[in-house]
Write a structure and sequence with these properties.
This protein is of the alpha/beta class. It has two domains: 194 residues, 2-enoyl-CoA Hydratase, Chain A, domain 1 (Alpha-Beta Complex); 47 residues, Lyase 2-enoyl-coa Hydratase, Chain  A, domain 2 (Orthogonal Bundle), CATH 1.10.12.10. 49% of the residues lie in helices and 17% in strands. The strands form two sheets. Strands 1-2-3-5-7-10 form a six-stranded mixed β-sheet, sandwiched between helices. The protein starts with 5 loop residues before the first strand and ends in an 8-residue tail after the last helix. The structure holds acetoacetyl-coenzyme A. It comes from Proteinivorax tanatarense. InterPro entries: ClpP/crotonase-like_dom_sf, Enoyl-CoA_hyd/isom_CS, Enoyl-CoA_hydra/iso, Enoyl-CoA_hydra_C.
């Protein structure tokens, strides 16, 4: 896959998509969002891929939506722009494959929102997180007001969004915004280690678990339990369940296809 603003690599079951507009700190303009949309569509239909890692080139993960492109927008144009960003991020959130954000630097505004749409966030010790939109006279527009409180809780999310403050990686870990923090030069290796650990498991059961968590969190508990029951039952119609349990009984490692 060739793009102007993305670098795509595939190593076996693991795909890496790197946002590549370093001169603008990987700010998200419309072209970049359209490319991201196409890349995610292609990754979704590639049955070989079991984990996606999202990262950024240079010193930034993503420093937000492109302010120069937004500056002159009318309300209608701004609504369309928000719709595009939201559509792509929702696709990332709902794709079967688990997505790890390897946050290598600034994750601000739309960049923080992109990381929030991923399943797991790992950060470089140099990463900085924040929703600085109110300082620009706007609200977050790619889902930040909704995902941030769901992930770190309402009070902390309101503090971050109302003040527009940036927090460092350790603080982000303490408030539950990132899963773990690593030295900058080990971040991608650690993301790969985690991706390989996930990919070594039954891919169907990982995908069903992602669906159960993401969809179940939007439901009442009883309906969510029904969903879990259905997905649990579906696993027993798969070769992977047969292999996983046979391997346990035969005291060997499973060989999932
Ligand atoms: N949009 C457009 N260009 C951006 C950008 C953005 N979000 N962030 C950085 N850039 C550009 C800068 O304009 C600069 O370009 P030039 O070299 O052409 O001047 C280049 O990237 C390098 O940036 P800086 O010189 O500012 O780098 P720095 O290290 O001094 O500062 C920074 C880094 C603190 C991240 C600073 O660039 C910054 O504050 N960026 C904006 C962050 C922001 O407000 N993000 C939210 C955007 S709104 C949004 O995302 C809405 C939404 O929810 C959809």
């Amino acid at each position: 896959m060739e793009f102007n603003n993305l670098i795509y690599q595939k190593q076996g079951e693991i795909a890496v998509l790197s946002i590549n507009r370093p001169k603008a700190l990987n700010a998200l303009n419309e072209e970049l969002l359209q490319e991201l949309n196409i890349a995610i569509d292609k990754i979704c239909v590639d049955k070989e891929i079991n984990v996606l890692i999202l990262t950024g080139e240079g010193k930034s993960f993503v420093a937000g939506a492109d302010i120069t492109q937004m500056q002159k927008k009318t309300s209608d144009e701004a609504r369309n722009f928000a719709e595009l960003g939201m559509k792509v991020f929702r696709k990332i959130e709902l794709m079967d494959t688990p997505v790890i954000a390897a946050v290598n630097g600034f994750a601000l505004g739309g960049g923080c929102e992109l990381a929030l749409a991923c399943d797991i966030r790992l950060a470089s010790s140099k990463a900085k997180f924040g929703q600085p939109e109110v300082g620009l006279g706007i609200t977050p527009g790619f889902g930040g007001t909704q995902r941030l409180p769901r992930i770190i809780g309402e009070a902390k999310a309101k503090e971050l969004i109302f003040t527009g403050s940036m927090v460092d990686a350790e603080t982000a870990k303490n408030i539950g915004l990132v899963n773990n923090v690593f030295e900058p030069d080990t971040l991608l290796d650690e993301a790969f280690k985690l991706a390989k650990k996930i990919a070594a498991n039954g891919s169907l059961s990982v995908k069903y678990s992602k669906a159960a968590i993401n969809k179940g969190l939007q439901m009442d508990l009883d309906s969510a339990m029904e969903l879990e029951k259905d997905l649990f039952a579906l696993c027993f119609a798969s070769e992977q369940q047969k292999e996983g349990m046979a391997a346990f009984v035969e005291k060997r490692k499973p060989n999932f296809k």
